[in-house]
Amino acid sequence: MSEGNGTGDIQALIAQIARLPGLGPRSARRIVLHLIRKRAGQMAPLAALMAEVAENSRECVSCGNISDGDICPICTDPARATGEICVVTDVADLWALERGRAFGGRYHVLGGSLSALDEIGPEDLRIPQLLERIAQEGISEVILALAATVEGQTTAHYIAEALAGTGVAVTGLAQGVPIGGELDFLDDGTLTAALRARRRL
User: Fold this and answer.
1) What pTM did the predictor assign?
2) Distance from C-alpha of 130 to C-alpha of 109, rounded to nearest angstrom
3) Running DSSP on this structure, what letter comes out for residue 62?
4) Strand-pair category, 199-200 with 141-144
5) Which end of the chain is more exposed for a tag (fewer CB within 10 A), N or C?
6) Cβ 66 vs Cβ 85: under 8 Å
7) 18-32, 132-146, 171-185: which has the minimum mean pLDDT?
8) Side-chain-facing half-sphere of 146: CA atoms under 13 Å
9) In angstroms, rounded to a whole number, what is the distance separating the alpha carbons of residues 137 and 142?
10) Phi and psi (nearest 5°) for 19?
11) Cα angle, residue 189 at apex, residues 187 and 193 outer, rounded to 5°
12) Phi-psi map region of 107: left, alpha, beta (phi>0 left; psi -120 to 50 alpha)
């Protein structure tokens, strides 16, 4: 360890923070220094909250969202029982759509995309649970809000084929989502426009 870079514990904390998405060693050092300087007002409460989240957070057994209970607030909200399910790849996409407040129904998180190269098939995702929910919850429309990538579109076509002949409308996001785009990186206006202009697949 070089002189002036702190103790082993501080260096270990910097290394851990640097592993977070979008951060590197320089950003991690700035964050750690800020937290140390504000240890009473920010570091201690942050550490307590992180411990609480680590202890209590779990995956919603219905939709796959992250919550502090077995069923997330979206799934327990009777006003969200609109007969529409918005299917997303991961929780970050669900949160992105919720941030834009453009959708008032319920969600289903797949946990990934189909990929022959990575040997990810339907049973490796939450596709069977989706088909079960559609049958049990009286769903009239499935909105496939999946990434405009090869894997995302392959997944969308698989789900659309699985629902063919069921009478359930299958729609997908339209304008605003660029080819190769990931939902979590889009602005709220783009997400809202894409959701409202969805089309049948």
Assistant:
1) 0.77
2) 9
3) T
4) unpaired
5) N
6) no
7) 171-185
8) 28
9) 12
10) -80, -10
11) 120
12) beta
Tokens representing residue 126 in the block: 């939450």
Q: Residue 1: is its pLDDT beyond 60?
A: no
Side-chain-facing half-sphere of 133: CA atoms under 13 Å: 23
Report pLDDT digits (tens) over 70-91. 999 999 999 999 999 999 999 9
Q: 168 in helix, strand or coil?
A: coil
Work out whether strand 169-172 and strand 106-109 pair parallel, antiparallel, or are unpaired: unpaired
Query: H or E stretch including 52?
Result: helix 44-56
- Could you read off the pLDDT of 105-140 as tens digits, one per residue? 999 999 999 999 999 999 999 999 999 999 999 899
Q: Of 185 and 154, which is predicted with more confidence? A: 154
Rounded to 5 degrees, what are φ and ψ at 12? Answer: -65, -40
